[in-house]
Every structure is written in structure tokens, then in C-alpha cells.
Write a structure and sequence with these properties.
With 141 residues, the chain is of the alpha+beta class. Helices cover 30% and strands 34% of the residues. Strands 1-2-3-4-5-7-6 form a seven-stranded mixed beta sheet, with helices on both faces.
């Protein structure tokens, strides 16, 4: 579902806290930024309305904070979130998408047409790659 930080910060934050802060040991002060209020967010819920995934689209086509609860990984949740973010980006006129993928997730993003650019770098103690994808006039898949 499309979500706003104003109305859904708690549940969006639950997913990000679980995945990034608790599971991946990202320092809390690095997880929260001032971009959340201006980004478009998605929230994935299970059949009991429990939050299981999230992602955000910021200005200029930057996708970030993609997170899926561990028990739901490999079940299509991340792909559904990414496809929806790509569609939203295209509908709002973005023709280029950029994200900083954890290196371990680069293959996931590559399956959706993202290509690595430049050298690996460390963010929050985790290896990352900058990845881009150019959208066409057709709807993103």
C-alpha cells in the first residue's frame, strides 16, 4: 500500500528498525533522516495486517530504505515493492532511478534491470554499490 510518513511512521519504522537496526546493527542515528517526510513510501502487510516490508522513493528517482522482514524474504515481497516504486517513479516523470544497494542484494536489483556503477563503498558498516536503472516510455515491469 502507498503510505505517508505522517500517517504511517510507526509501522514503517517498525520494519526498518527490525531489519536495519536490530538485524544488521545499523546505528540508530544513521537510520533516521530528514528525507522521510518528503519521500513516497510503500508498506507491505501480511494477511493479518502486520507490516512485513517497506521502501521509499525520494526526489530525483532515488529508491531507498528497502526492507523486508526476514521470514518474508524470497517470497516476492521485495520484488512487489520495487516494481511499485518503479511504476510510481515513472508515473511522476522520473526516467532514471538510483539506489545504494547492499552488495549482498545487488543480484536482486540486477534482476529488475539495475546496473552497478563505480566501486563498492561502505555505508553504516555495510558494503554497498551504487546502482541505476533507466526507465523507458513503457510502464516499468
Amino acid at each position: 500500500m502507498v503510505a505517508t510518513w505522517k500517517d504511517h511512521a510507526y509501522v514503517l519504522g517498525q520494519v526498518r528498525r527490525t531489519v536495519f537496526i536490530e538485524e544488521q546493527n545499523v546505528p540508530e542515528e544513521l537510520e533516521w533522516d530528514d528525507l522521510d517526510e518528503s519521500c513516497q513510501h510503500l508498506l507491505a502487510l501480511d494477511s493479518k495486517n502486520n507490516p512485513i516490508g517497506t521502501g521509499r522513493l525520494c526526489e530525483h528517482g532515488h529508491i531507498g530504505r528497502m526492507a523486508v522482514i526476514k521470514d518474508w524474504r524470497g517470497k516476492g515481497v521485495g520484488g512487489a515493492l520495487l516494481r511499485k516504486l518503479m511504476n510510481i517513479a515513472q508515473q511522476t516523470g522520473n526516467l532514471k532511478l538510483v539506489l545504494n544497494a547492499q552488495t549482498s542484494a545487488a543480484g536482486f536489483y540486477a534482476r529488475y534491470g539495475f546496473s552497478a556503477e563505480g566501486d563498492e563503498f561502505t555505508d553504516a558498516g555495510i558494503p554497498h554499490l551504487k546502482m541505476t536503472r533507466y526507465l523507458t516510455d513503457r510502464r516499468a515491469r
